[in-house]
Every structure is written in C-alpha cells, then in structure tokens.
Design goal:
615 residues, alpha+beta, seven-stranded mixed β-sheet, globular
Length: 615
C-alpha cells in the first residue's frame, strides 16, 4: 500500500518513507511500527499488540518501545508534546490520528514479483490470481494445472464469545489442532501456528490478515463455553471476495471433552473443504492428542518464540515443563529436539543435551509414526551427520504421506544441497517457499542461491523474512559480493555487538577481519568456532572457506577433507568460491574434491529416480 499525508509518503511495497520528496533513513522496526499504526488507525493500539506484532513476542522493554515511538514521530514531523500524528492514550496505547490524504495500491510489489519470477527459474512464475478458484498470490509451476494446485490457507485463533481466563486458551489451542490435521490433507498448505498467534486478542480486518499471510482462504470461528458444554461454529472466508464460502453446523461437546471438540472441528472442516473445493483425499487424520491442558498451553507458548538464541532458550524451558507434564505428546518432543539443536548449532551453546536430540525425534515417531515434523527434523540431523542415505529414505516416506506438503519439499531440497544437486535443491526449496512464503525455516534457500552465484535472487528473498541475525548476516555477505565494503562492515559490527559468541557473531568477526586485513583476529574467531565441537558438515565446509580467506591453506584443506568425509558433497559451491582458488590445484585438495563429486553423482543415480514419481 501507499499512504500519503502532509508531505509524507509511506510505501509498504518499497519499504520506503519519504518526506517532502526525499527518502528518509528508517530502521525496519520503526517502519513496521508506523505502518502497523496506520493500518489500525481507527482504534487505539495497545503496547502489547505492538510487542506481539512488531517484535513477534520477544521481550522488549517499555523504554525501547517509547524510543521507537519517539523516532517514528520525528520522521513524521511530530513530537511527544504536540502529538499531531501519533497520539499517546495513557494507560491504553497509541493511535495514528493524522488524516490520510491518499491510500492506493502500490504497483512496485507486482513488478518485483514478476521480476523475481524471471530470476528464479523459467519453469516458475509469480501470479496474482485472487479469483474464485482460490489459487492466489504465490509461485506456480508452468506445468501444473489448476486441478492439482494447492490452496493456501490460514486458521485464525477462534474467538471466545464469553471471554474468560479459564477458557480463552482454547482459541489458539483449537486453531493449532486444525492446523496440525490439515497438514495431512493433500493440496492444502496451511500457515503454521507461530504465524497466526499474533491475531489471538486483537480485532483485525480479515482481508488485511489474508493479504499479510499471503493466503487465499481464512478459516475462522467462535466458541462458547457454558453449562458444562462447548459450542462451536466455523467458517471459511475467501479473501478475494470477502465472502463466506462455507459454514459448519453448530458443533457441541461436553466441556470435559475438549480434545474431542478439536477432532470434531478438524473433521467438519475437512468435509466442508471437500464439498466446496474438492480437496483430495484425507491422507492422515487423527494426530495424537495431549493428555494435559497445561502441557499443551506450554507447547503453544513455545512455538511462538522467535528463531533467535534467546527465543530458543525460552522455548526449551517451556518445552521441558510441557514434556514433564505430558511425555507422550509427540509435537512437544519434536520441538524440544529442534530448539536444542538450533541453540547449539547457531547459538554455539553447549547445552549438554545434543545427544538427546535424536532420541526426542525417535520417541515422537514411536508415538506418531507419520508425524511430518518429526520426520523432517530427523532427516535434517541425518543429513548433517553423514547419514544422507537414511535422510533420503525418510523424505521419500514424507512424500508418500503428503506429496504437496511444503515442509516435505524443503527437507528434500536441503538434502539435495548437501548432495551437491543444486538445481534440484533450488527447485524443491522454491516450491516450499511458494507454498509457505513466510516460513523462516525455508530461508536457507538464500544460501543455496548464493552458493551458485544467484546473488540477486538471494537478496530478493531476504525481503520475505523479519530482521534477525540470519538476515543481517546474509545482507552483509551479499554486500561483499556487491563490493559495498562499508555497508558490510556496518552490518558485521551490528552482529558482533549484539551476540559476539553466536555463530553469526563469529562469522561476522571473520569477515570483518578479512575486509580490514586483520587476519589474526579472524583466525581467533575461526578457532573459537572449531572448539564448539561442530557436528554439521556444511558448517565445517564454511570453516574451510574461512581458513582459505585468512591465508591458512593447510587448515583449509584439512577442514574441507573433514567436511567431505562427513557427508558434504557440494562440489559446485567449491567451484564458485573465489576464496578457495589458492588451494584448488593442491593434490590433497583435488582428491577430496573428486571424492565429493563422485559421491554426488552416485547419490543422484541412486535417489533421483525414486523422487521422479512425485514431481
């Protein structure tokens, strides 16, 4: 959208704020804050809403929010005394009160989508179809016909008709359950619970939510808990027309049978989708239910935590409490394993529990053998630890369970990248992003693009994801590729200040040392990284690159050999790395390179034919 008032123009597609014809420098969080206030200008926005929507529930001080409001006012020609644009409503929050002179659709986003479509792959195009077919705003393969396309949906937290602390939790719990069930319905892709949690308590416009989540349909509803019964109504709303396309019959169960209600709702929605949209067969219904409501609540709180070091810490704490209350709820076990793995892999924190990660996934699969999230995470661990054949067998099982699931295709793409089959990796990862554009797990496609020199595509994809150490780090790395040394160093400094000891903090230290010819500082950071007992073969490969950057060719060769021996066969990334040019003619290095290339070719011969039937 493009909002204009006074001499100010806010363009949400360009992420640009201009005043009196001049583009102003604006921090991403401040820009998001301004846009959120404008979009909800008809009412007061609470501080809690801003924390949840702008900071995604992360712990932020009131002072930090006040400072962001102060900066926003200054950019908009306002101040805390006059408050002619942003008004403070004491005890409640803030409201944007300036009249919008003009509000128009921005054409920048459409042109950018078309541009990205040409860059991603000729067999993929971005389309804007908001039509009654329900095939909306996402990448579509040219060889896919309408009858086998996927519907993009989100399930909003259900509203409590009689708000009460003892039953309010049901709104998100019921939505989470439906989301889990719909993951097993072919040709439906549904947004994860973490994406819809922000809509729990606030009054949002459905069309705006649909556009924000980039879906074609919203599933919404309300419930009433009274007289020892829970009554429920559910609707499916089409975003393009703002019309209700289906409404359930009233569902009623005993108050003590909450989990029965969850299954009833999921089944009713499936039948509605089948009647109205002709969705394909129900592949796997009957996900395991939690036995303890408090454990389930802790699980829901954990999945809302951001993908950051602090977010992982908080999630692990919540999930341990959840598992202690109910050790037979498989999704909690999966999330606990995943968060511990990420805390160690990216936070470089030795939790002393990495050996348990595998057992968490295996235990979850004993409870629910076809749980896609458990299968996906187990495949990731196997891929990273030289068990890539086992990882492939898992992902083939996932394809058999649901061949159109986004998580399944991303997992396959991840395996292909390790195996050195980059074009196949990009095809699968792009398909996953097409189905679920905002899923932070899928941002790893950026690394795949960069590894084969598709830097513009990598830069473009960064806009999909919220600011984080990952996005800042990759922006800096791409700045180097664009010969923008000053910008790269600025971003690296930001990472070093925020979290020097994390993976991205050490990566930033290495690259900054390289740019400033302070190789000793960089080598100290690489040594720190090696001392963290790296298990991921791809990270070992990057360590090899860092050693080459800093002139340590012998250690570069040693690390590269270790990466290949541990199952990393992506020889094309070596071909495209200018930092490794000074070792490419060494006999020992050539032997490791040839081993990677040979293993990649053998992998392709064994496994590519097995995936062709799912294309």
């Amino acid at each position: 959208m493009r909002y204009q008032f006074n001499q100010t123009i806010i363009d949400t597609a360009k992420f640009e704020l201009s005043a009196s014809g001049k583009v102003q420098s604006c921090e991403p969080k401040v820009f998001s804050l301004i846009v959120f206030l404008i979009e909800h200008r008809k009412r007061v926005v609470t501080r809690e809403e801003l924390f949840e929507s702008i900071w995604e529930g992360r712990e932020v001080s009131d002072t930090s929010l006040s400072n962001h409001i102060k900066i926003a006012r200054k950019l908009l020609g306002d101040d805390g005394k006059s408050q002619k644009v942003i008004k403070t409503v004491h005890g409640r929050g803030y409201q944007f009160i300036e009249a919008i002179a003009q509000e128009t659709e921005s054409h920048f986003e459409e042109s950018n989508l078309n541009l990205l479509a040409r860059k991603i792959k000729p067999s993929f195009i971005f389309v804007t179809l908001f039509t009654l077919t329900g095939l909306g705003y996402f990448l579509t393969q040219q060889n896919v016909t309408p009858e086998n396309d996927n519907y993009l949906m989100a399930v909003l937290p259900f509203s409590n008709n009689q708000p009460d602390d003892s039953t309010d939790y049901l709104g998100l719990a019921l939505a989470d359950r439906v989301i889990s069930e719909l993951a097993y319905v072919e040709n439906i892709n549904v947004r994860p619970t973490s994406a819809i949690r922000k809509y729990t308590k606030a009054n949002f416009d459905l069309k705006q939510i649909g556009q924000n989540l980039k879906v074609d349909y919203l599933i919404t509803g309300s419930y009433l808990s009274a007289y020892n019964k829970v009554q429920m109504n559910v609707e499916i709303v089409e975003i393009a027309s703002s019309k209700m396309v289906w409404r359930s019959q009233q569902i009623e169960v005993e108050n003590k049978s909450v989990f029965e209600l969850q299954d009833r709702i999921a089944g009713e929605i499936y039948r509605g989708l089948n009647r109205k949209m002709g969705v394909k067969k129900k592949l796997q219904f009957g996900i395991d239910t939690p036995n303890n409501q408090k454990a389930y609540e802790l699980y829901l709180r954990s999945i809302a935590q951001p993908f950051s070091t602090n977010g992982h810490r908080k999630a692990v704490s919540l999930l341990k409490r959840s598992v202690a209350l109910d050790g037979n709820f498989a999704p909690s076990l999966v999330q606990l394993g995943n968060r511990i793995r990420r805390l160690e892999q990216f936070g470089l924190i030795n939790t002393g529990e990495s050996h348990q990660t595998l057992s968490y996934y295996q235990e979850a699969l004993q409870i629910e053998p076809n749980l896609l999230s458990a299968l996906s995470h187990l495949a990731f661990v196997y891929t990273e630890s030289n068990r890539i054949d086992e990882a492939m067998r898992i992902v083939i099982t996932m394809l058999e369970i649901n061949p159109t699931n986004a998580q399944t295709h991303f997992t396959l793409g991840y395996i292909f990248r390790y195996a050195g089959l980059n074009e196949h990796a990009i095809r699968e990862m792009e398909y996953a992003v097409k189905l679920d554009p905002r899923n932070v797990r899928f941002r790893s496609l950026i690394a795949t693009y960069s590894g084969i020199k598709r830097f513009k595509d990598a830069r473009k994809l960064l806009d999909y994801y919220p600011e984080s150490a990952f996005t800042t780090g990759w922006q800096a790395l791409l700045d180097i590729r664009d010969d923008n040394r000053e910008s790269a160093i600025k971003r690296f400094n930001k990472l070093i200040v925020s979290d020097r000891a994390s993976l991205w903090g050490l990566v930033a230290t290495v690259h900054k040392a390289y740019l400033e010819n302070e190789f000793e500082k960089g080598l100290i950071a690489v040594h720190q990284l090696e001392q963290t007992n790296i298990a991921d073969a791809e990270t070992v490969f990057y360590v090899a690159i860092y050693y080459c950057m800093l002139g340590e060719t012998k250690r570069c060769q040693q690390s590269y050999r270790k990466a290949v021996d541990n199952g990393y066969y992506n020889y094309q990334f070596v071909d495209n790395s200018p930092y490794m040019d000074n070792v490419k003619n060494d006999p020992g290095f050539i032997a490791s390179y040839n081993k990677a290339k040979q293993n990649s070719q053998l992998f392709a011969e064994r496994f590519l034919p097995l995936t062709q039937k799912f294309q």
